[in-house]
Structure formats: C-alpha cells, structure tokens
C-alpha cells in the first residue's frame, strides 16, 4: 500500500522508475533469449481484478490492491532481507490431499512440482519450470547459501474423509497437518520440509475467494509440537475461478473483453491452482518463518517475492497486461514447459538480481 503512494505522489520517483525501467530494458536486450519455435501472443488481459494470492496468517486487511504489482524494474521496491533462514537444504515437499481428488488431477499437480528440479537425463525444452525456479534460487540467507534447486515430493497423505470438516480455518489447517504427521511414514521434517495442503473444490477456507487463494505460514509448537513451514492452496474450480483461477476464468464485467484464456491442461481449477502453488512455494522457500525476504514494514502483512509479480506472466506486461505468453496448436495458453510434455502458465517472480519480475519466457 505504501509503495503505491510513492508512485502517485512523487513525480521524481516516477521519472526515476522510467529511467530504471529503460536501463533495465536495454540491459536485457544484450542478453537476449529468444524462443523462436513458439507463437507468442499478448492476450490484452489485465492482471486479476481482485488481489488474491496472499500469504501468511493475518493478511486480510483489505490492503491487497493492484498497487503491489511492479511490472517494470524499480529500486523503490523495498524488498529486504530480515536475517531469518531460507530453505537452503534440498527441499522435501510433503503433500496433503484433503478431500476427494481425481488421480489425474493429482498427477498434473505432481507433474508441475516434479518439473522444478528435473534429473539431468530428462531434457525439457526452454522455457521450463526449472528455469522459472532459478529466479527463486537466487535468494540467499546470511551465510550466503542459496535456496536449494533440489525440490522433491517425498511423501503424500490423503484425507478423503474430510476428517476436520469441509470448512477449514487458519488454525484448523494445523490440525490437518498434525493428523498427517502422526501417520507413518509421514515424518516431522523441520529442516527440509514444506507441508503443502491442497483442498478439493468442495472444501471452503476462512477468507477463501474473498481475500485469499493460498497462503503460507508455519505451525505452532503449542499446537503441532514443531515449527513446520506449510502452504495451503485450494481448488477454486467451482468456488471462485474468476478470482483464483484467473485468467482461465474472468469476472462477468470483463465478458466484453478478450475473454478467458484456455488452460494449458484443460482444467480451469487445477491449471489455476498450479500458478498459486508456484507462488506459495517461492514465498515459503524465501520466507519460511516470515523473517527472511519481504518488503514493507509490517511482518504481519509482508509483500513477498511472488506478490510483487502477481498477475504477470510474460514480457510487455508493463501496460497493465499479463504479458506475452504462448499458445499451443490447440489454442491453449502457457508460458513454460514441464516434464512429460506438460505445459503450465505460471506467474513471474521478483528477481533480486534484475530488481524486476523475471520468468523463463522473457522475450527481451
Ligand atoms: Zn504471496
């Protein structure tokens, strides 16, 4: 919110931003990376109308506006390191499937997660999911250790009986984690672990749709016995796709515009979820205990490395559009490749090197 004031009240700042943007633009041309074999298009869709992918425990303060997006380069983004840990050891994801899931949906989400660090013998064409994670891995802790480029799914737990109900809160989600870690072999892994809770489309969450599509935080020792970083993302396919699966669904008032994009895997809910999962993984890795990388003065409402680029998927997004992305021969939109020939549309991440949003499908 305060960053928006900088933009609107200071013409000097605006000029500075323009200069920085042009400088960055020129610099990027020198390291041009073209992907000639893909057809790019600019769908002329604005970023999502309601800010949605938010994080941490108490972020629903009505502060989530489009002012958090920075399409161009800016040194005025006050992203700072607050001396806490990042996930620098090889990352183990523990998946908790809450509710009823189709195996094909689970496989698609795992295809994305397992594309982050692909074994060397698998060649995935650029732009790829693992190239997207490179931006995340540029973040370091105070010892200089980078966020790990190794991300594995090491355990899965299914709660098909909705054992904590069909309405979850930010506290009861910790009970879901307790239930999972009490089963064997689903370990307590407070060194390398991320507990990723995914709820099916018939489960509602406190503030879901209205304020959040996903969030991350950590468990409390008083509740769970340990401090475990976790993230939650819900399937919005039925509840609010125009908010949480944007741009695969658009709000009614935008129906006269270019319309919704076709999801890369034909599933609005899951394809939309994957970008939210990506956002949360990037942020839980760079700010697992909410004391490492974030902008803003208030640690209860941090602006993190995904928030800064929310709704931005490609180059040329500076005019208030989502940017240049690709279409396959069936007209499905995507901006990166994953394993087993899968394609995904995933938002960009703030780069600490470029001081701008970055993604593997950058054209300039
Ligand atoms: Zn976020």
Automatic annotation (TrEMBL):
<feature type="region of interest" description="Disordered">
    <location>
        <begin position="38"/>
        <end position="64"/>
    </location>
</feature>
<keyword id="KW-0964">Secreted</keyword>
<keyword id="KW-0052">Apoplast</keyword>
<dbReference type="InterPro" id="IPR006766">
    <property type="entry name" value="EXORDIUM-like"/>
</dbReference>
<dbReference type="Pfam" id="PF04674">
    <property type="entry name" value="Phi_1"/>
</dbReference>
<comment type="similarity">
    <text>Belongs to the EXORDIUM family.</text>
</comment>
<protein>
    <recommendedName>
        <fullName>Protein EXORDIUM-like 5</fullName>
    </recommendedName>
</protein>
<dbReference type="GO" id="GO:0048046">
    <property type="term" value="C:apoplast"/>
</dbReference>
<feature type="signal peptide">
    <location>
        <begin position="1"/>
        <end position="30"/>
    </location>
</feature>
<keyword id="KW-0732">Signal</keyword>
<feature type="compositionally biased region" description="Basic and acidic residues">
    <location>
        <begin position="54"/>
        <end position="64"/>
    </location>
</feature>
